[in-house]
Amino acid sequence: MQNIPYQYRLLILFLLMGLIVAVDYWRNPTKPTKLQEYSFLIVSGLIGAGFGIVNDQITCTLSPAYFYYFKNVPYDSSFRWEVSEVGFQAGFFAGFLSYGIFLLVNQRRKLPLSYRQLLKMARYPITWAILVAQIAGFIFYYFQFPFFADQITPVVQPAEVSKFMLVWGIHIGLYIGAILGIVHGIVNIRRRVLHLSL
After folding, report:
1. Is the CB of residue 166 less than 8 Å from the CB of residue 196?
2. Distance (Å, whole) CA 57 – CA 60
3. Which of 59, 58, 52 has the alpha carbon at shortest distance from 140?
4. How far apart are the first and last CA of the chain?
């Protein structure tokens, strides 16, 4: 599966989703649900993709070497475009997965939240990701733990090590923060009373 280009994997995913939607309409012509659910997941994925693109454009400015060595992005005229592709892929998957989890948890409620309310849960993974990314980036930048630094010093110019460590910490923090945000969102969904402004 890893040898299949990302755009084709997305196409396969959408085709499968379209097939399931068609079957759902055939089985439940008066009350189909899959189209709304999958539309919600696609929108969620696009929210994540937008966040991923913006984040990677910022971090590639701080340390192009991080993307060159860790993401295999060649440093040429198409560098920023390819970085955007990396951000889109990672962000779309994260958004799709996060809201897929929220959707599953929501379906177990006696009175499920609306899709509009669920979309407001975006603030939790995004806020936590931004917060923890800053903290992790700060820690990596100032402490430069030997376990991590020793892996890059043979290939990165000494002047670039600090920025490389900063971006590395930011990306690790994003994943940790996203997980914390998902947990935060799940807790709120499972509450009997959610104080969400409509």
Report:
1. no
2. 5
3. 59
4. 41
Residues contacting residue 171 through CB under 8 Å, at least 6 positions apart: 59, 66, 133
DSSP label of 114: P
**CB distance 52 to 98 below 8 Å:** no
Per-residue pLDDT of the chain (198 residues; tens, 9 = 90+): 445 566 766 777 777 777 777 776 777 777 767 778 778 888 888 999 999 999 999 999 999 999 999 898 998 889 999 999 999 999 998 888 888 888 888 877 777 788 888 888 888 999 999 999 999 999 999 998 888 888 888 888 888 999 999 999 999 999 999 999 999 999 988 874 445 444
Has this prediction a pTM greater than 0.85?
Answer: no
